[in-house]
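During the second year of the project, the team shifted from modelling isolated chains to modelling whole assemblies. The rationale, set out in the original proposal, was that interfaces cannot be judged from single-chain predictions alone. As a representative example for this report, we include one of the complexes processed in the last quarter. Its constituent sequences, exactly as entered into the pipeline, are reproduced here:
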Amino acid sequence: MNLQGKVAFITGASRGIGAAVARALSSEGVKLGLASRSGADLDLPDALGLVCDVRNRGQVERAVAATVERFGRLDICIANAGVGSYHSLVELSPEHLEEMIDVNLKGTIYTHRAGIPHLIASGEGDLVTIASEAGRRGLPGEAVYCASKFGQVGLTRALDHELREKNVRCTNVCPGGVATDFALADGYGRTPDVLPGMMSAEDVAEIVLFILTRPRNHRILETAIRPMTEASWG
Ligand code: NJP
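Output from the structure prediction step:
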């Protein structure tokens, strides 16, 4: 399916997976609303950089509205912004606990809630959540991250029921380790020692492009992607 002229809104688009998805969509002729706290537009053509903290529902609503105002429609809504912090539940700082729930879970709810009316109006909508393998399995030291990612997965699965008959396709993307700042951040992301085997952000962006370019007679509900260096956890 050709994406030329479609309009997408992406959160966490300033770097990592979000930026790679933005570049991949731009190369297919998609116009972009790119939301992040830094508001980078990545110097892409037909891209609107939007300063937006997804923890703030009003900012998310205004960023989606600005995208629609600029480009006249919204066909694709991608909730990607996310943070991770890995400790046992009792050792996890209250600040990181709140941040993971607020950014990963509430931010995704706010993003899709703001995008959905426009996706329905488009007549051919796509809603994508960048979740995680941690949204499919419980992982040690990741209780709150898993809780936030299971929440994203549940949200998107439920939205599939609400939106299928309105021709909006809803997809969870569940990667394992991806070599981004998220993975590199010392003591905050996943361990850097497994980086050489990790996937690239561009690998994930290719999957997203594949999902969005399927013929409209079917939809991909979930993709689980893992580097060859990671076990599949059963
Ligand atoms: O992370 P990173 P990834 N409001 O750190 C933005 C999931 N995932 O690309 O605000 C708005 O490179 C931040 O921009 P800025 C992961 O859970 C990853 O790896 O300017 N935006 C930046 O653009 C997440 O959901 C791995 O600082 C906020 C972006 O988010 C998604 O993939 C594995 C924000 C983060 O870029 C993208 O992560 C996996 C806020 N409050 C799932 N806070 C992995 N990398 O290994 C942050 O299973 N951002």
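The first strand starts at residue 7 and ends at 11. The chain has one domain: 7-225.
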